[in-house]
Specification:
Layout lengths: L1 E2 L20 H4 L5 E2 L17 E2 L11 E2 L30 E2 L1 E5 L2 E3 L7 E9 L4 E10 L2 E9 L10 E9 L4 E8 L20 E7 L7 E6 L1 H8 L8 H9 L5 H13 L2 E6 L5 E5 L7
Parallel strand pairs: 3-5, 6-14
Antiparallel strand pairs: 1-2, 1-4, 6-13, 7-12, 8-11, 8-13, 9-10, 9-12, 14-15, 15-16
């Protein structure tokens, strides 16, 4: 479930509804700020720590939310119905801190308040090919500890990892998130994307006190790097054409070496903030973790 940008305006009697790809332009202000989430195999009840809770109503700025459901029906079976949903329980007493969600992907840095933040849970997420996932805390350019080390990841058993002891993060901390995939059971390329057969690499954390100015820090290879490796001069705006170029690649030991070198050295674009007001920062290359 996502929070919509507080500046977005909808008509309450005609809210966007339908398949995400068909209404993307209408919901793009609601597609980046996580309010809560659940994955296959997750627990039925998610409890927040006694000291913090998710804010609702009052002077809280969020009015609209979007529930996004993902379905996977590769055999295209008919007459399949879904009766799942989300139920929230409201507390009678206001808790000391407001709780927020922070999503990290690959290399990240964040502008934490002077007092820092306290992280209570971690929710790692890849798709079917993911086999492990971890996030390390980097201080003074050195990895000091794991924020979470998911050595054995299973898409069919996703749940929030509750820390036995909350983890404190401080201004200046940086993060490196890495995912390991196993595609030995496939004979075609795996693309990045939201479909179950595609892949992603995200790590979501609950923390307090809540920061309203950003929800995520993720990155992607720069368009310039893609153009260079694909030997293309036109902008890569036609995503379907771009996908087909990747599917048509011929894999040889030499091409494997080339693409690994591309991944290791390609400039990155760091995307951070919240839906509607993301900031972009160029990174020369992926961070080396020691």
């Amino acid at each position: 479930m996502f929070e919509c940008n507080p500046t977005v305006v909808f008509h309450d009697n005609n809210l966007p509804d339908g398949e995400c790809d068909d209404i993307y332009r209408q919901i793009q202000e609601c597609a980046g700020n996580i309010a809560t989430g659940w994955g296959v195999g997750g627990e039925k009840i998610v409890e927040f720590p006694e000291i913090a809770g998710y804010p609702v109503g009052g002077d809280f700025e969020i009015k609209y939310y979007m529930v996004q459901m993902h379905y996977n029906n590769p055999k295209k079976m008919s007459n399949r119905r879904d009766s799942s949903g989300i139920r929230f329980y409201l507390g009678n007493e206001l808790r000391q801190h407001d709780l927020g969600y922070l999503t990290l992907g690959t290399d990240s840095n964040a502008q934490f308040p002077k007092s820092g933040i306290t992280v209570t849970t971690a929710f790692p997420h890849t798709h079917l090919q993911g086999s492990s996932l971890w996030t390390k805390i980097i201080r003074d350019k050195k990895a000091v500890d794991y924020l979470l080390n998911g050595e054995s990841y299973d898409f069919n058993y996703q749940f929030e990892n509750r820390f036995p002891k909350p983890v404190q993060l401080y201004p200046g901390d940086e993060f490196a998130t890495r995912c390991t995939y196993n595609t030995m059971n496939k004979n075609e390329i795996t693309l990045g994307g939201e479909r179950t057969k595609d892949e992603m690499c995200l790590h979501m954390f609950t923390y307090y006190p809540r920061m309203n100015h950003f929800y995520s820090y993720i990155n992607a290879n720069s368009e310039k790097a893609w153009k260079q490796v694909m030997n293309a001069t036109d902008p890569l705006e036609d995503y379907m054409k771009f996908q087909q170029l990747l599917r048509d690649l011929k894999w040889t030991p030499e091409s494997v070496r080339k693409w690994q070198e591309f991944y290791d050295n390609a400039p990155r674009l760091l995307i951070g903030g919240r839906a509607g007001s993301y900031t972009l920062e160029e990174l020369p290359e992926i961070t080396r973790i020691y």
